[in-house]
Specification:
32% of the residues lie in helices and 33% in strands.
Length: 430
């Protein structure tokens, strides 16, 4: 009986020792893994969050009215007076000063007056020439009537007169007819010269072709104006209907399309958030060396802000607009952990990773879909496969299951300096 009890005690002691050894190995392995994880560099994380991702093409443009009429002189001469843009009658020489920019004018209102003297003389000469032509036509008509009567008499006396006399009288009548027709043509010609002189005289008064606002004037009192000169006035119909003319490089023009949303600011109203849309892309490229740009017209949306012509606009042509998307730093998609970091890599028994395991891990990572890694409390990380959307170079849109707000996403590790490892408490050296 005593021998039986001793045998049971020995078996119990043997089992207890095995359990103690296994527990020691397990605890030692866990301690070894935790020790190795603690020796690794600390993880640098950022919280994942939802946000808006917006990408755009930046450009600089100029504000201009939708429709601008350039009013110039159709006849040459010296500017002798200005009107107020509303009166319909001619102005007196030297009566008015130049029309200020911003003045509202009406259609037909007098803008400027060119010296009329030469054109009045030309009209008078044309009228005199017309009267002379009419008198010449009357004289030739009388001569034609006389030639007709002579021809009628010659026909009655043809039997007594010679044939040569008859032919001479008939020829004279034909010549008289031709001369009279030429006189009538000269009369019509001088009449048209009168109309031409009257038109030129009327053109010495420069009138507004539309109802609108003067946005620029380029002529002064006493200055010579003419068809070859630049426009004297620039008039727009409505300053509330404005647009932006901007230039986009050939590398970005493929992303621009009619109706594309646009945001812009102007220096005069920096706090105003102004919007618009692309109206059209002009095909006439501008080439400067190897740099090619295309003009883009942007229609401005109505707003309370009063924009003025020739303002400089900082334009943003929107190419991407994502709202409430999951956004992570772009560098988080490039970070890869080692095997010891991964939550499912190895066993917690102090096992080391040989070259074959590392090579296999590298191959699996190269063939795996894009992933982000979430940091755990014990220093490990957990991979989450994602589908990548658009990125702006800093933030990237991702799609995945199981994402939560403020989830810590690993973007890299924190490298301590040698001095910080030797003296952890040292913060500042003086």
């Amino acid at each position: 009986m005593k021998r039986k009890v001793n045998g049971r005690s020995r078996k119990f002691a043997k089992g207890l020792s095995v359990l103690v050894v296994a527990s020691s190995l397990l605890l030692g392995g866990s301690w070894h893994v935790r020790q190795r994880l603690a020796e690794l560099p600390k993880l640098r994380t950022v919280p994942i969050k939802r946000g808006d991702l917006r990408m755009f093409i930046a450009a600089t443009g100029t504000v201009e009215p939708n429709a601008v009429v350039e009013v110039g002189a159709l006849v040459s001469g010296k500017v002798v007076a200005f009107g107020d843009g509303n009166q319909q009658t001619d102005v007196t020489v030297g009566e008015q000063s130049p029309i200020p920019v911003g003045t509202r004018v009406t259609q037909g209102g007098v803008l400027a007056q060119i010296d009329r003297q030469l054109y009045e003389i030309e009209l008078q000469q044309a009228r005199v020439a017309h009267r002379l032509a009419e008198a010449e036509a009357a004289r030739l008509q009388t001569r034609l009537e006389q030639a007709r009567r002579e021809l009628e008499r010659a026909e009655r006396l043809r039997s007594t007169n010679s044939e040569s006399q008859y032919d001479q009288i008939a020829t004279g009548f034909a010549v008289a007819q031709a001369d009279f027709k030429m006189a009538l043509a000269r009369t019509e010609q001088t009449a048209s010269q009168i109309q031409y002189a009257e038109i030129n005289l009327a053109r010495t008064t420069i009138r507004s072709p539309i109802d609108g606002v003067v946005i620029d004037h380029r002529v002064n009192l006493g200055q010579h104006a003419g068809p070859a000169s630049p426009g004297m006035f620039l008039i727009t119909a409505d300053l509330k209907q404005m647009r932006i003319r901007t230039s986009v490089s050939e590398t970005d023009i493929g992303k621009v399309y009619p109706g594309q949303p646009v945001r812009f600011t102007v220096d005069g109203y920096r706090d105003a958030k102004l919007t618009g849309s692309v109206e059209k892309v002009l095909m006439n490229a501008r080439v400067q060396g190897n740099f090619v740009t295309y003009d883009v017209l942007v229609q401005i949306d109505p707003s309370e802000t009063t924009l003025l012509p020739h303002m400089t606009a900082d334009v943003q042509l929107e190419t991407v607009n994502r709202s409430n998307a999951w956004l992570v730093p772009s560098e988080s998609l490039n970070w890869q952990p080692n095997l010891e970091r991964q939550a499912n890599a190895g066993r917690e028994n102090g096992q080391t990773f040989d070259a074959a395991m590392v090579e296999k891990s590298v191959i699996e990572k190269s063939n795996a879909p894009p992933c982000i890694y979430v940091a755990a409390d014990d220093g490990r990380v957990r991979a989450i496969p994602v589908r990548v959307g658009v990125d702006d170079g800093t933030k990237t849109e991702i799609f995945a299951e199981g994402l939560q707000e403020s989830m810590p996403i690993v973007v890299g590790t924190i490298r301590e300096t040698t001095l910080a490892r030797i003296i952890p408490s040292v913060k500042t050296l003086r």
